[in-house]
Specification:
With about 450 residues, the protein is of the alpha+beta class. It has 11 helices and 17 strands. The chain has 2 domains: about 190 residues, no CATH class; about 240 residues, no CATH class. The strands form 2 sheets. Strands 1, 2, 5, 6, 9, 10, 12, 14 and 17 form a 9-stranded mixed sheet that branches. Strands 8-7-11-4-3-13-16-15 form an 8-stranded mixed sheet. A hairpin with a 2-residue loop joins strand 1 and strand 2. The chain is elongated.
């Protein structure tokens, strides 16, 4: 009988924990819904302005016509006749030297309670091409005729171009026109170049300024045999992305600066371009890029989602604390009282989500935790019939919330901190109950309960 009463209480506590999973799952679903709604609004803002930007190029393209004489059989005579076949194609040249110096300024665009971060990047692009003798065709050069060459620059979202583009080529100025006419670059701009005979090697110096507006990310394809990229921005939380990390960088509270340097040996871009030239679309060319993401690292929905993953642990530890007071002080706590405290713990996550959308996650966490700890402390003082025990219980719960906040901030050490927390709590329980007579507790639980005394103020 005594054993049955003990198992009954443990079973009720276990059932309450399982039932509390229902509101926790509903709150978790609400977090996902709000996050999806936020993403839709950010995508809508980007659609109305411009998406992430990727700058690919410049490439120098020389269209050609190749004439080849072939012998064909004559149906009316055994003597073959000669015919000239015309083949059209293009020669692609990457810069010998490519340099980009960018100055990025960010701004916030709001729609309702949601915010998107846009950037404006002033980019100064310069470098030079080296056209080899006979365009690198060797002895076959005489069989080619060349049309007007042009320079093409890929820009992933041309809506973000904020200035009129002018190309400076060997101290001469040329106008850019919309479109690249190069499928592997996609959208962008191009500029016609003076005709080149290709008889001798020639160096072509180029320079142009392009101001780009974008959302989220800025990426650059290092097209030069030697490429140097320098970015300076007023954004203090950069996330460097792509295939190459900066060779040097500096981050402060007011912004960051980063320096990239690559060569053909590291990018293998020339071989990639040769393979892509035969295809209309080639993702491998643009994939060899690097850049920076301007997405805010403080994502209240992500942190709220991470925090609710610890909800079951919180509820179990709180119920274990109640049960420990029952055992050590000989008190009787009704399952409904367990349920009310569990509901307060679950409501913390809904309060955290709703507040964080308006005042930020850190302040929302402080206010939500303070409100829940205060409510539970007030209630537990009466449940345990002792102000001292109630305040002690509230202090322990407040320490748990502080530890949870530390777990959310220390992503790399979350497992270690969580394991140490559980081990420490287990050690405390074992120390407090090391001399407890569990059989006597079961016998005491079987006796009729006495009238509950008034709340003491120890």
């Amino acid at each position: 009988m005594n054993k049955g009463i003990t198992l009954y209480k443990l079973g009720m506590i276990g059932l309450l924990i399982l039932l509390l999973l229902i509101p926790l799952m509903m709150i978790n679903g609400l977090i996902q819904d709000r996050q999806n709604r936020r993403d839709e609004v950010l995508h809508d803002i980007a659609r109305s302005s411009s998406y992430s930007q990727q700058l690919s190029g410049p490439l120098l393209i020389v269209p050609y016509r190749k004439f080849t004489k072939v012998w064909k059989p004559n149906a009316e005579s055994p003597v073959r006749y000669q015919e000239t076949v015309e083949e059209r194609g293009r020669l692609y040249f990457l810069p010998e030297q490519f340099q980009l110096d960018g100055d990025v300024q960010t701004e916030v665009r709001s729609r309702g309670i949601y915010e998107a971060r846009l950037y404006h990047a002033d980019n100064k692009v310069s470098g030079h091409f080296v056209l080899p003798r006979h365009f690198g065709l060797g002895d076959d050069f005489a069989n080619y005729q060349f049309d007007q060459p042009f320079l093409a620059v890929g820009i992933s979202d041309v809506r973000g171009i904020e200035n009129s583009l002018k190309l400076t080529l060997n101290d001469q100025e040329e106008d850019f026109v919309p479109g690249t006419d190069v499928p592997l670059l996609g959208e962008g701009v191009s500029a016609a170049l003076p005709m080149e005979s290709g008889v001798d090697e020639k160096r072509l110096n180029f320079a142009f300024d392009v101001r780009l507006q974008g959302t989220g990310q800025l990426q650059i394809t290092p097209v030069g045999k030697s490429s140097v990229v320098n970015l300076v921005a007023n954004w203090p939380h950069p996330s460097f992305i792509g295939n190459y990390l900066p060779t040097s960088r500096g981050i402060s509270e007011t912004g960051f600066n980063a320096h990239w340097q690559t060569t053909f040996f590291s990018t293998n871009l020339q071989e990639t371009l040769n393979a892509c030239a035969a295809n209309e679309v080639c993702k491998a060319f643009k994939a060899r890029s690097f850049g920076v993401s301007f997405i805010s690292p403080v994502d209240q929905y992500l942190k709220a989602d991470r925090s609710i993953k610890y909800a079951l642990l919180f509820i179990a530890l709180t119920f274990a604390g109640f049960l420990l007071f029952e055992v050590l002080k000989g008190l009787a706590v009704h399952p409904i009282q367990y349920a009310l405290v569990g509901a307060s713990l679950a409501l913390f996550y809904l309060l955290l989500l709703s507040l964080s959308e308006h005042i930020g996650f850190d302040l929302a966490y402080l206010l939500s935790a303070t409100a829940c700890v205060s409510l539970i402390t007030f209630y537990v003082c009466h449940v345990l019939r002792s102000v001292t025990h109630g305040l002690g219980f509230g202090a322990g719960l407040g320490a748990l919330y502080a530890l949870l906040y530390g777990l959310l901030g220390a992503e790399d050490y979350a497992l270690l901190m969580g394991t140490l927390l559980l081990f420490g709590l287990l050690a405390v329980v074992m120390v407090l109950t090391r001399e407890l007579d569990w059989y006597a507790i079961a016998q005491r639980a079987a006796k009729p309960a006495k009238a509950a005394p008034e709340v003491s103020h120890e």
